[in-house]
Amino acid sequence: MSDFVFVLFGGNGDLAWKKIHPSLSKLYKQGKIKPHKIISCSREANKEEFLSKIREHFGDQYASICDYINVDVTKLADFNFIKSLEKHEIIFYLSIPPNLFEIAIKNIGHILLDMPNKRKIVVEKPFGYDLESAKKLNNLLHTFFIEKEIYRIDHFLGKESVQNIFSFRFANYIFEGIWNKNFIDHVQISALEDIGVEGRYAYYDKFGAFKDMIQNHLTQMATFVAMEPPCCMDAEEIRNEKVKVLRTMRISLEDVTLGRYEGYTLEPGVNKSSKTETFAAVKLYIDNLRWYGVPFYLRTGKKLKSKTTQIIIAFKRMPGSFEKILGCCPKENKIVIKITPTTDIELRLDVRAPNADFLSCPLEVSMSMEGSRESSEAYETLLLDIINSNQTLFLREDEVELAWGLYQSIFDSWEKKKDVELYEVGSFGPKSAKELIKKDGRQWYIF
Ligand code: BG6
Protein backbone atom coordinates (compact mmCIF):
# COMPACT_ATOMS: atom_id res chain seq x y z
CA MET A 1 0.00 0.00 0.00
CA SER A 2 1.50 3.32 -0.97
CA ASP A 3 0.68 6.98 -0.81
CA PHE A 4 -0.52 7.13 2.73
CA VAL A 5 0.66 9.55 5.34
CA PHE A 6 1.27 8.19 8.81
CA VAL A 7 0.69 10.80 11.49
CA LEU A 8 2.08 9.67 14.82
CA PHE A 9 0.94 11.60 17.87
CA GLY A 10 3.35 10.87 20.69
CA GLY A 11 5.98 10.48 17.97
CA ASN A 12 8.83 11.25 20.35
CA GLY A 13 7.53 9.01 23.16
CA ASP A 14 8.78 5.76 24.57
CA LEU A 15 6.53 3.51 22.49
CA ALA A 16 7.40 5.42 19.32
CA TRP A 17 11.14 4.93 19.79
CA LYS A 18 10.96 1.37 21.11
CA LYS A 19 8.31 -0.14 18.86
CA ILE A 20 6.66 2.07 16.24
CA HIS A 21 9.65 3.63 14.45
CA PRO A 22 11.70 0.40 14.55
CA SER A 23 8.76 -1.54 13.06
CA LEU A 24 7.85 1.06 10.43
CA SER A 25 11.46 1.45 9.33
CA LYS A 26 11.91 -2.32 9.05
CA LEU A 27 8.73 -2.72 6.99
CA TYR A 28 9.82 0.20 4.80
CA LYS A 29 13.31 -1.21 4.20
CA GLN A 30 11.82 -4.61 3.36
CA GLY A 31 9.63 -2.89 0.76
CA LYS A 32 6.43 -4.04 2.49
CA ILE A 33 5.10 -0.50 2.88
CA LYS A 34 5.56 2.64 0.80
CA PRO A 35 4.39 5.60 2.84
CA HIS A 36 4.38 9.03 1.28
CA LYS A 37 5.42 10.47 4.63
CA ILE A 38 5.68 9.60 8.31
CA ILE A 39 4.99 12.66 10.41
CA SER A 40 5.88 12.47 14.09
CA CYS A 41 4.12 14.96 16.32
CA SER A 42 4.95 15.84 19.88
CA ARG A 43 4.77 18.85 22.12
CA GLU A 44 8.27 20.06 22.48
CA ALA A 45 10.98 18.19 20.63
CA ASN A 46 13.41 20.06 18.43
CA LYS A 47 12.76 19.16 14.79
CA GLU A 48 16.44 19.03 13.70
CA GLU A 49 17.47 16.96 16.70
CA PHE A 50 14.53 14.62 16.30
CA LEU A 51 15.22 13.98 12.62
CA SER A 52 18.92 13.49 13.13
CA LYS A 53 18.14 10.93 15.87
CA ILE A 54 15.85 9.15 13.42
CA ARG A 55 18.66 9.13 10.83
CA GLU A 56 21.14 7.84 13.38
CA HIS A 57 18.85 5.01 14.56
CA PHE A 58 17.14 3.97 11.35
CA GLY A 59 19.28 5.26 8.47
CA ASP A 60 18.98 7.84 5.67
CA GLN A 61 16.45 5.93 3.63
CA TYR A 62 13.84 5.92 6.41
CA ALA A 63 14.76 9.45 7.54
CA SER A 64 14.06 10.73 4.01
CA ILE A 65 10.32 9.99 4.42
CA CYS A 66 10.12 11.27 8.01
CA ASP A 67 9.02 14.69 9.12
CA TYR A 68 8.41 16.26 12.51
CA ILE A 69 5.86 18.85 13.69
CA ASN A 70 5.33 20.37 17.13
CA VAL A 71 1.75 19.68 18.15
CA ASP A 72 -0.01 20.33 21.42
CA VAL A 73 -2.99 17.97 21.00
CA THR A 74 -5.17 20.21 23.18
CA LYS A 75 -4.88 23.07 20.62
CA LEU A 76 -7.07 22.83 17.55
CA ALA A 77 -4.86 25.30 15.64
CA ASP A 78 -1.92 22.87 15.90
CA PHE A 79 -3.84 20.39 13.73
CA ASN A 80 -4.01 22.70 10.70
CA PHE A 81 -1.06 20.95 9.08
CA ILE A 82 -3.46 18.06 8.33
CA LYS A 83 -5.16 20.25 5.70
CA SER A 84 -2.02 20.13 3.57
CA LEU A 85 -2.35 16.34 3.32
CA GLU A 86 -5.50 16.40 1.28
CA LYS A 87 -4.26 14.15 -1.56
CA HIS A 88 -3.41 11.21 0.67
CA GLU A 89 -4.95 8.59 2.83
CA ILE A 90 -4.09 9.50 6.42
CA ILE A 91 -3.42 7.06 9.24
CA PHE A 92 -3.61 8.80 12.62
CA TYR A 93 -1.90 6.92 15.43
CA LEU A 94 -2.61 7.96 19.03
CA SER A 95 0.39 6.95 21.08
CA ILE A 96 -0.33 9.57 23.75
CA PRO A 97 -1.43 9.44 27.40
CA PRO A 98 -5.03 8.18 27.68
CA ASN A 99 -6.29 11.43 29.25
CA LEU A 100 -5.50 13.13 25.92
CA PHE A 101 -7.36 10.68 23.67
CA GLU A 102 -10.65 12.58 23.77
CA ILE A 103 -9.33 16.00 22.93
CA ALA A 104 -7.02 14.61 20.23
CA ILE A 105 -9.91 12.71 18.58
CA LYS A 106 -12.13 15.81 18.66
CA ASN A 107 -9.44 17.98 17.11
CA ILE A 108 -8.58 15.47 14.40
CA GLY A 109 -12.30 15.03 13.74
CA HIS A 110 -12.93 18.75 13.37
CA ILE A 111 -10.13 19.21 10.86
CA LEU A 112 -11.29 16.17 8.86
CA LEU A 113 -14.88 17.43 8.58
CA ASP A 114 -14.05 19.37 5.41
CA MET A 115 -11.66 16.83 3.98
CA PRO A 116 -12.60 14.00 1.63
CA ASN A 117 -9.54 11.89 2.45
CA LYS A 118 -9.58 8.24 3.25
CA ARG A 119 -8.63 7.97 6.91
CA LYS A 120 -7.92 5.54 9.72
CA ILE A 121 -7.37 6.06 13.40
CA VAL A 122 -5.34 3.82 15.66
CA VAL A 123 -5.92 3.99 19.41
CA GLU A 124 -3.33 2.54 21.77
CA LYS A 125 -4.35 0.97 25.04
CA PRO A 126 -5.74 1.61 27.58
CA PHE A 127 -9.07 1.96 25.80
CA GLY A 128 -10.97 3.50 28.71
CA TYR A 129 -10.56 2.68 32.38
CA ASP A 130 -13.99 1.10 32.94
CA LEU A 131 -17.12 0.22 30.98
CA GLU A 132 -18.55 3.71 31.01
CA SER A 133 -15.39 5.46 29.87
CA ALA A 134 -14.86 2.85 27.12
CA LYS A 135 -18.40 3.48 25.86
CA LYS A 136 -17.81 7.21 25.92
CA LEU A 137 -14.62 6.83 23.90
CA ASN A 138 -16.39 4.59 21.39
CA ASN A 139 -19.19 7.13 21.00
CA LEU A 140 -16.73 9.92 20.44
CA LEU A 141 -14.79 7.93 17.83
CA HIS A 142 -18.05 7.17 16.04
CA THR A 143 -18.85 10.86 15.81
CA PHE A 144 -15.99 11.22 13.35
CA PHE A 145 -15.07 7.73 12.13
CA ILE A 146 -16.86 4.59 11.04
CA GLU A 147 -15.93 1.28 12.68
CA LYS A 148 -13.96 0.16 9.59
CA GLU A 149 -11.63 3.10 10.13
CA ILE A 150 -10.96 2.40 13.82
CA TYR A 151 -8.08 0.20 15.02
CA ARG A 152 -8.02 -0.48 18.77
CA ILE A 153 -4.67 -2.01 19.65
CA ASP A 154 -3.98 -4.96 21.90
CA HIS A 155 -0.36 -5.68 21.02
CA PHE A 156 -0.50 -9.24 22.43
CA LEU A 157 -2.64 -10.21 19.45
CA GLY A 158 0.25 -9.34 17.16
CA LYS A 159 2.57 -11.80 18.91
CA GLU A 160 3.66 -14.73 16.79
CA SER A 161 2.49 -17.51 19.14
CA VAL A 162 -0.86 -15.92 19.85
CA GLN A 163 -1.62 -15.96 16.13
CA ASN A 164 -0.31 -19.49 16.00
CA ILE A 165 -3.16 -20.59 18.30
CA PHE A 166 -5.34 -20.27 15.22
CA SER A 167 -3.27 -22.48 12.95
CA PHE A 168 -2.51 -24.93 15.68
CA ARG A 169 -6.16 -25.40 16.61
CA PHE A 170 -7.82 -25.19 13.25
CA ALA A 171 -5.27 -26.86 10.96
CA ASN A 172 -4.69 -30.00 13.07
CA TYR A 173 -7.59 -32.37 13.02
CA ILE A 174 -6.29 -34.39 15.96
CA PHE A 175 -7.21 -31.56 18.31
CA GLU A 176 -10.70 -30.96 17.00
CA GLY A 177 -12.35 -33.74 19.00
CA ILE A 178 -10.54 -33.06 22.27
CA TRP A 179 -10.61 -29.26 22.49
CA ASN A 180 -13.49 -29.19 24.95
CA LYS A 181 -14.74 -29.93 28.46
CA ASN A 182 -14.69 -33.70 27.88
CA PHE A 183 -10.90 -33.80 27.63
CA ILE A 184 -9.56 -30.49 28.93
CA ASP A 185 -9.32 -30.14 32.69
CA HIS A 186 -8.41 -26.46 32.78
CA VAL A 187 -6.56 -23.70 30.96
CA GLN A 188 -4.00 -21.41 32.54
CA ILE A 189 -2.55 -18.23 31.12
CA SER A 190 0.41 -16.57 32.79
CA ALA A 191 2.04 -13.29 31.82
CA LEU A 192 4.80 -12.88 34.37
CA GLU A 193 7.24 -10.00 34.30
CA ASP A 194 10.50 -9.47 36.12
CA ILE A 195 10.51 -5.72 35.59
CA GLY A 196 8.68 -3.26 37.81
CA VAL A 197 6.67 -0.22 36.84
CA GLU A 198 9.68 1.45 35.19
CA GLY A 199 8.77 5.09 35.62
CA ARG A 200 5.15 4.64 34.45
CA TYR A 201 3.66 5.38 37.89
CA ALA A 202 1.37 8.16 36.71
CA TYR A 203 -0.44 5.64 34.52
CA TYR A 204 0.13 2.41 36.43
CA ASP A 205 -0.89 3.58 39.86
CA LYS A 206 -4.32 4.48 38.47
CA PHE A 207 -4.76 1.23 36.56
CA GLY A 208 -2.98 -1.60 38.36
CA ALA A 209 -2.25 -5.09 37.09
CA PHE A 210 -5.87 -6.12 36.60
CA LYS A 211 -6.81 -3.30 34.24
CA ASP A 212 -3.33 -3.14 32.70
CA MET A 213 -3.11 -6.82 31.72
CA ILE A 214 -5.97 -9.15 32.76
CA GLN A 215 -8.86 -7.10 31.36
CA ASN A 216 -7.25 -6.87 27.93
CA HIS A 217 -4.22 -9.01 26.99
CA LEU A 218 -4.98 -12.11 29.07
CA THR A 219 -8.71 -12.08 28.43
CA GLN A 220 -8.02 -11.70 24.71
CA MET A 221 -5.71 -14.71 24.73
CA ALA A 222 -8.41 -16.69 26.52
CA THR A 223 -10.89 -15.84 23.74
CA PHE A 224 -8.44 -17.14 21.12
CA VAL A 225 -8.13 -20.44 22.99
CA ALA A 226 -11.86 -20.77 23.54
CA MET A 227 -13.49 -19.47 20.36
CA GLU A 228 -15.28 -21.64 17.82
CA PRO A 229 -13.71 -21.88 14.37
CA PRO A 230 -14.98 -19.00 12.24
CA CYS A 231 -16.75 -19.87 8.98
CA CYS A 232 -13.95 -18.11 7.08
CA MET A 233 -10.85 -16.08 7.79
CA ASP A 234 -12.64 -12.79 7.73
CA ALA A 235 -12.09 -10.11 10.37
CA GLU A 236 -15.79 -9.77 11.17
CA GLU A 237 -16.37 -13.52 11.35
CA ILE A 238 -13.39 -14.03 13.63
CA ARG A 239 -14.41 -11.18 15.90
CA ASN A 240 -17.99 -12.45 15.98
CA GLU A 241 -16.68 -15.72 17.41
CA LYS A 242 -14.57 -13.91 20.03
CA VAL A 243 -17.59 -11.85 21.03
CA LYS A 244 -19.61 -15.03 21.61
CA VAL A 245 -16.96 -16.21 24.05
CA LEU A 246 -16.85 -12.87 25.87
CA ARG A 247 -20.62 -12.95 26.21
CA THR A 248 -20.49 -16.28 28.01
CA MET A 249 -17.52 -15.57 30.29
CA ARG A 250 -18.32 -15.44 33.99
CA ILE A 251 -16.31 -14.38 37.02
CA SER A 252 -17.03 -13.99 40.75
CA LEU A 253 -15.34 -11.76 43.24
CA GLU A 254 -14.11 -14.67 45.36
CA ASP A 255 -12.16 -15.91 42.33
CA VAL A 256 -10.00 -12.79 42.15
CA THR A 257 -6.81 -12.30 44.08
CA LEU A 258 -4.53 -9.28 44.09
CA GLY A 259 -0.98 -8.66 45.24
CA ARG A 260 1.61 -5.92 45.48
CA TYR A 261 5.37 -6.39 45.51
CA GLU A 262 7.16 -5.35 48.65
CA GLY A 263 8.57 -1.87 48.36
CA TYR A 264 6.19 -0.62 45.65
CA THR A 265 4.85 2.24 47.76
CA LEU A 266 8.38 3.27 48.73
CA GLU A 267 9.44 3.84 45.13
CA PRO A 268 9.85 7.47 44.10
CA GLY A 269 6.71 8.84 42.48
CA VAL A 270 4.31 6.34 44.06
CA ASN A 271 1.60 7.52 46.43
CA LYS A 272 2.60 6.12 49.85
CA SER A 273 -0.97 5.07 50.63
CA SER A 274 -1.47 3.50 47.18
CA LYS A 275 -3.79 0.48 47.06
CA THR A 276 -2.73 -0.41 43.54
CA GLU A 277 -2.08 -4.07 42.80
CA THR A 278 0.99 -5.12 40.82
CA PHE A 279 -0.25 -8.72 40.59
CA ALA A 280 -3.64 -10.19 39.78
CA ALA A 281 -4.92 -13.73 39.36
CA VAL A 282 -8.46 -14.74 38.45
CA LYS A 283 -10.53 -17.78 37.66
CA LEU A 284 -13.05 -17.48 34.84
CA TYR A 285 -15.68 -19.79 33.45
CA ILE A 286 -17.12 -19.88 29.96
CA ASP A 287 -20.73 -20.97 30.08
CA ASN A 288 -21.11 -22.56 26.67
CA LEU A 289 -21.37 -26.15 25.50
CA ARG A 290 -17.69 -26.51 24.71
CA TRP A 291 -16.32 -25.13 27.97
CA TYR A 292 -18.98 -25.46 30.64
CA GLY A 293 -17.25 -26.18 33.98
CA VAL A 294 -13.67 -25.78 32.70
CA PRO A 295 -11.83 -23.13 34.72
CA PHE A 296 -9.59 -20.63 32.95
CA TYR A 297 -6.97 -19.33 35.40
CA LEU A 298 -5.23 -16.08 34.45
CA ARG A 299 -2.36 -14.44 36.32
CA THR A 300 0.00 -11.57 35.75
CA GLY A 301 2.37 -9.48 37.83
CA LYS A 302 5.43 -7.29 38.01
CA LYS A 303 8.81 -7.96 39.70
CA LEU A 304 8.27 -11.71 39.61
CA LYS A 305 10.82 -14.46 39.09
CA SER A 306 11.15 -14.16 35.31
CA LYS A 307 9.64 -12.69 32.18
CA THR A 308 7.51 -15.54 30.90
CA THR A 309 4.24 -15.60 29.01
CA GLN A 310 2.61 -18.99 28.48
CA ILE A 311 -0.74 -20.57 27.82
CA ILE A 312 -1.16 -24.09 29.17
CA ILE A 313 -3.97 -26.37 28.13
CA ALA A 314 -4.06 -29.08 30.78
CA PHE A 315 -5.92 -32.27 29.85
CA LYS A 316 -7.72 -34.51 32.30
CA ARG A 317 -5.75 -37.06 34.25
CA MET A 318 -5.78 -40.73 33.30
CA PRO A 319 -8.77 -42.36 34.89
CA GLY A 320 -8.70 -45.90 36.26
CA SER A 321 -6.33 -47.87 38.41
CA PHE A 322 -3.05 -46.78 36.88
CA GLU A 323 -1.99 -45.38 40.18
CA LYS A 324 -2.46 -48.76 41.85
CA ILE A 325 -0.59 -50.70 39.17
CA LEU A 326 2.40 -48.40 38.98
CA GLY A 327 2.40 -46.94 42.42
CA CYS A 328 2.47 -43.48 40.92
CA CYS A 329 0.20 -41.21 39.01
CA PRO A 330 0.90 -40.11 35.43
CA LYS A 331 0.82 -36.38 34.93
CA GLU A 332 -1.91 -34.84 32.85
CA ASN A 333 -1.05 -34.19 29.19
CA LYS A 334 -0.47 -30.57 28.39
CA ILE A 335 -0.14 -28.28 25.43
CA VAL A 336 2.15 -25.37 26.25
CA ILE A 337 1.97 -22.33 24.02
CA LYS A 338 5.08 -20.32 24.75
CA ILE A 339 4.73 -16.67 23.91
CA THR A 340 7.67 -15.03 25.67
CA PRO A 341 10.67 -15.38 25.70
CA THR A 342 10.45 -18.18 23.08
CA THR A 343 7.67 -18.77 20.57
CA ASP A 344 7.41 -22.49 20.81
CA ILE A 345 4.51 -24.92 21.16
CA GLU A 346 5.08 -28.05 23.25
CA LEU A 347 3.06 -31.18 23.66
CA ARG A 348 3.85 -32.77 27.04
CA LEU A 349 3.21 -36.50 27.30
CA ASP A 350 4.06 -39.25 29.75
CA VAL A 351 6.16 -42.10 28.33
CA ARG A 352 8.24 -44.96 29.64
CA ALA A 353 11.67 -43.78 30.67
CA PRO A 354 14.47 -45.28 28.50
CA ASN A 355 15.78 -48.57 29.88
CA ALA A 356 13.30 -48.49 32.74
CA ASP A 357 11.24 -51.44 33.90
CA PHE A 358 8.14 -52.27 31.92
CA LEU A 359 5.92 -51.29 34.81
CA SER A 360 7.71 -48.15 35.81
CA CYS A 361 6.38 -44.70 36.48
CA PRO A 362 6.08 -42.81 33.22
CA LEU A 363 8.22 -39.78 32.61
CA GLU A 364 6.91 -36.48 31.34
CA VAL A 365 8.58 -35.50 28.07
CA SER A 366 7.97 -32.62 25.74
CA MET A 367 7.78 -32.58 21.97
CA SER A 368 8.58 -29.17 20.68
CA MET A 369 7.20 -27.53 17.57
CA GLU A 370 9.46 -24.55 17.28
CA GLY A 371 8.69 -22.40 14.25
CA SER A 372 11.62 -22.20 11.87
CA ARG A 373 10.82 -18.85 10.29
CA GLU A 374 12.03 -15.67 11.89
CA SER A 375 9.17 -14.26 13.88
CA SER A 376 8.13 -10.64 13.48
CA GLU A 377 7.76 -8.15 16.27
CA ALA A 378 4.10 -7.80 17.28
CA TYR A 379 4.09 -4.17 16.18
CA GLU A 380 5.34 -5.03 12.68
CA THR A 381 2.41 -7.39 12.21
CA LEU A 382 -0.09 -4.90 13.59
CA LEU A 383 1.21 -1.93 11.60
CA LEU A 384 1.19 -3.92 8.40
CA ASP A 385 -2.38 -5.01 9.10
CA ILE A 386 -3.47 -1.42 9.74
CA ILE A 387 -1.86 -0.26 6.51
CA ASN A 388 -3.47 -3.17 4.61
CA SER A 389 -6.86 -2.55 6.28
CA ASN A 390 -7.03 -5.93 8.02
CA GLN A 391 -8.91 -5.53 11.31
CA THR A 392 -8.72 -9.17 12.47
CA LEU A 393 -6.24 -8.51 15.27
CA PHE A 394 -7.89 -5.32 16.51
CA LEU A 395 -10.68 -5.02 19.04
CA ARG A 396 -14.11 -4.21 17.73
CA GLU A 397 -16.39 -1.79 19.59
CA ASP A 398 -18.55 -4.55 21.11
CA GLU A 399 -15.50 -6.64 22.07
CA VAL A 400 -13.89 -3.86 24.03
CA GLU A 401 -17.13 -3.07 25.85
CA LEU A 402 -17.84 -6.71 26.67
CA ALA A 403 -14.33 -7.14 28.06
CA TRP A 404 -14.88 -4.17 30.38
CA GLY A 405 -18.42 -5.28 31.19
CA LEU A 406 -17.21 -8.72 32.24
CA TYR A 407 -15.12 -7.24 35.06
CA GLN A 408 -17.18 -4.18 35.94
CA SER A 409 -18.93 -5.84 38.89
CA ILE A 410 -15.51 -6.74 40.33
CA PHE A 411 -14.28 -3.16 40.02
CA ASP A 412 -17.51 -1.88 41.57
CA SER A 413 -17.15 -4.07 44.64
CA TRP A 414 -13.47 -3.69 45.25
CA GLU A 415 -13.68 0.08 45.38
CA LYS A 416 -15.14 -0.60 48.84
CA LYS A 417 -12.74 -3.29 49.97
CA LYS A 418 -9.60 -3.93 48.02
CA ASP A 419 -7.61 -6.72 49.58
CA VAL A 420 -4.03 -6.65 48.31
CA GLU A 421 -1.48 -9.12 49.67
CA LEU A 422 2.22 -8.27 49.65
CA TYR A 423 4.63 -10.58 47.85
CA GLU A 424 8.37 -10.87 47.69
CA VAL A 425 10.26 -9.43 44.71
CA GLY A 426 11.52 -12.29 42.52
CA SER A 427 8.83 -14.72 43.68
CA PHE A 428 5.79 -16.14 41.83
CA GLY A 429 3.41 -13.69 43.51
CA PRO A 430 1.25 -13.76 46.64
CA LYS A 431 0.21 -16.91 48.50
CA SER A 432 -3.42 -16.22 47.74
CA ALA A 433 -2.72 -16.80 44.02
CA LYS A 434 -1.33 -20.23 44.83
CA GLU A 435 -4.39 -20.90 46.98
CA LEU A 436 -6.78 -19.83 44.22
CA ILE A 437 -5.75 -22.80 42.09
CA LYS A 438 -4.66 -25.17 44.88
CA LYS A 439 -8.08 -25.24 46.47
CA ASP A 440 -9.33 -26.75 43.19
CA GLY A 441 -6.65 -29.47 43.45
CA ARG A 442 -4.47 -27.89 40.76
CA GLN A 443 -1.23 -25.94 40.52
CA TRP A 444 0.33 -23.22 38.38
CA TYR A 445 2.88 -24.35 35.83
CA ILE A 446 5.73 -22.65 34.00
CA PHE A 447 7.79 -24.58 31.48
C1 BG6 B 1 1.68 -3.46 28.28
C2 BG6 B 1 1.51 -3.14 29.74
O1 BG6 B 1 0.44 -3.41 27.62
O2 BG6 B 1 2.23 -4.76 28.15
C3 BG6 B 1 2.84 -3.25 30.46
O3 BG6 B 1 0.99 -1.83 29.88
C4 BG6 B 1 3.49 -4.58 30.22
O4 BG6 B 1 2.67 -3.01 31.85
C5 BG6 B 1 3.52 -4.90 28.73
O5 BG6 B 1 4.80 -4.54 30.73
C6 BG6 B 1 3.99 -6.32 28.49
O6 BG6 B 1 4.14 -6.51 27.12
P1 BG6 B 1 5.24 -7.46 26.52
O7 BG6 B 1 5.02 -7.41 25.04
O8 BG6 B 1 6.57 -6.87 26.95
O9 BG6 B 1 5.05 -8.79 27.12
Structure description:
With 447 residues, the chain is α/β, with parallel strands linked by helices. The chain folds into two domains: 4-124, 3-Layer(aba) Sandwich (Rossmann fold), CATH 3.40.50; 157-375 and 395-438, Dihydrodipicolinate Reductase, domain 2 (2-Layer Sandwich). 35% of the residues lie in helices and 21% in strands. The chain contains twelve helices and 16 strands. The protein has helices at residues 14-29, 47-63, 101-112, 131-144, 160-170, 173-176, 201-226, 235-248, 322-326, 378-387, 397-414, 431-438; strands at residues 4-9, 37-42, 66-70, 89-94, 119-123, 150-152, 184-192, 249-250, 256-261, 279-286, 296-301, 308-315, 334-340, 345-351, 363-368, 420-423. The strands form two sheets. Strands 7, 8, 9, 10, 11, 12, 13, 14, 15 and 16 form a ten-stranded mixed β-sheet that branches. Helix 8 (235-248) packs parallel to helix 11. The radius of gyration is 24 Å and the shape is globular. The mean pLDDT is 94. Bound molecules: 6-O-phosphono-beta-D-glucopyranose. 6-O-phosphono-beta-D-glucopyranose binds at residues 125, 193, 212, 309, 340. 6-O-phosphono-beta-D-glucopyranose binds next to loops.
Q: In a few lines, what is going on in this structure?
A:
With 447 residues, this protein is of the alpha/beta class. 35% of the residues lie in helices and 21% in strands.
